[in-house]
Every structure is written in C-alpha cells, then in structure tokens.
Write a structure and sequence with these properties.
Number of strands of chain B: 12
Radius of gyration of chain B: 14 Å
Largest interface: A-B, 31 and 26 residues
Shape of chain A: globular
Oligomer: heterodimer
Number of helices of chain B: 0
Order of helices and strands of chain A: EEEEEEEEEEE
Number of strands of chain A: 11
Chain lengths: 113, 115
C-alpha cells in the first residue's frame, strides 16, 4: 500500500518560532509538493521539488522554505511562524509522468498562537 | 495556467438519489483532470482521472465522471448517494512541466447526503 506520511497530525506553535513539517513517501516518486488548504480557497501550492536538492516556488512561497536532501523526504519550513500561517498543510508526491495521480499525506493542522 | 472551477460550495442530496458535483476547466491543450475526496481532518484520496479515451470515467466507491469537451466540464456523478459519501470534493487539473506537473485545484464542494 503506497504511503505519504506527514510527521504530525496537529501542531500548536508560537508566533516567531521556526517550524518544521516533515513528509516522507515510500513510492520512489520524483516529484513532491507542499500545499496549504484554507476554507473557501481550496489547495494552494507553496513549493515543489522534482529531484533531490531541487526546489521551486509555487503560488504562495512567501514565509516558507523547503528542503529535500533525500528523494523520499520533503520538509516544509516556516522560518518565523505567524498567525496567518495557521492552516492545514498537505504534502503530496507523484511520479514523473504527467498522467499519474498524486498521493497525499493525511495533513498537518498547524495553529500559530 | 490551467485552472478548474467548482461553481457550488455545497450540494445537498437525499440518500438513494443520484448526485452530481460540478467542475469546469480552462486549459490550453488537452486537459488531464482529476477528482479527489477529503473526509474531515484527513488528506485527499484519489477518486478518478481523465487522461484520454472514453468520456465516461469510472472510479472508486461507485463514482464516475463525464468529460465534456464542448462544455469544458468534468462533472462527478454517482447513481445512488450514500450518507457515507458526505465529504469535501475537489476537482483538479494537471499543470505543465514548469510546475513539476502539480495539480491545480478548485475551491472544493461540500457534499451532504441526508438519510
């Protein structure tokens, strides 16, 4: 059974903290993605990576960075958490082909207080 | 950029009745279209996709979707709704290689099936 695993289901952090969200996939997928989900806005792409050590900005990268040191792991970093980053964060992966579906982790609900 | 729109925030259906969740797309070229479902506080689960071929695509849990090129639509359907189908449904279109083939999502439609 294919899997994308996010390290935390729920997180509560304080404003100004550095926050790490971890994502691991076991499907040997090349492409990995971080989205945030907010009510009424759907899913918005923060960053993506198509190879180890490669990263590209998505639609809303401000306030975030990412790291991909190994193929199976893609980390999202909030350099200095702010209350407007309170959201559901979803990690996804897909193989290189354009016709393949993406597989999602269970999500991390982050609250910044 | 490739995009999709879901015109309904919420759809209400009685159990046993057919359901339709609407999606329209705007793309250059041939679209690769997807439907996902999300249960409360969970990630997204893949339901079905249209890449090419038959306009009627069958997927998981009895769902199907009809690709209509002339109307630029990809509506999700099920002949007989279950209470357990109540969830948030997302339509998505695959973007190009410059975004790593990311999925661009609609805003989601909340489906409520009442007993």
């Amino acid at each position: 059974d294919v899997k994308v695993t996010q390290s935390s289901r729920y997180l509560v952090k304080r404003t100004g903290e550095k926050v790490f969200l971890e994502c691991v996939q076991d499907m040997d997928h090349e492409n990995m993605f971080w989205y945030r989900q907010d009510p009424g806005l759907g899913l918005r792409l923060i960053y993506f990576s198509y190879d180890v050590k490669m990263k590209e900005k998505g639609d809303i990268p401000e306030g975030y960075s990412v790291s991909r040191e190994k193929k199976e792991r893609f980390s999202l970093i909030l350099e200095s958490a702010s209350t407007n980053q309170t959201s559901m964060y979803l990690c996804a992966s897909t193989s290189g082909g354009s016709s393949t579906e993406a597989f999602f982790g269970q999500g991390t609900r982050l609250t910044v207080v | 950029a490739q995009s999709v729109a879901q015109p309904e925030d919420q759809v209400n259906v009685a159990e046993g009745n057919p359901l339709t969740v609407k999606c329209t797309y705007s793309v250059s070229g041939n679209p690769y279209l997807f439907w996902y479902v999300q249960y409360p506080n969970r990630g997204l689960q893949f339901l079905l996709k249209y890449i090419t071929g038959d306009n009627l695509v069958k997927g998981s849990y009895g769902f199907e979707a009809e690709f209509n090129k002339s109307q630029t639509s990809f509506h999700l359907k099920k002949p007989s709704a279950l209470v357990s189908d109540s969830a948030l449904y997302f339509c998505a279109v695959r973007d190009g290689p410059n975004s790593g083939y990311a999925l661009n999502f609609g805003k989601g439609t909340s489906l409520l099936v009442t007993p």
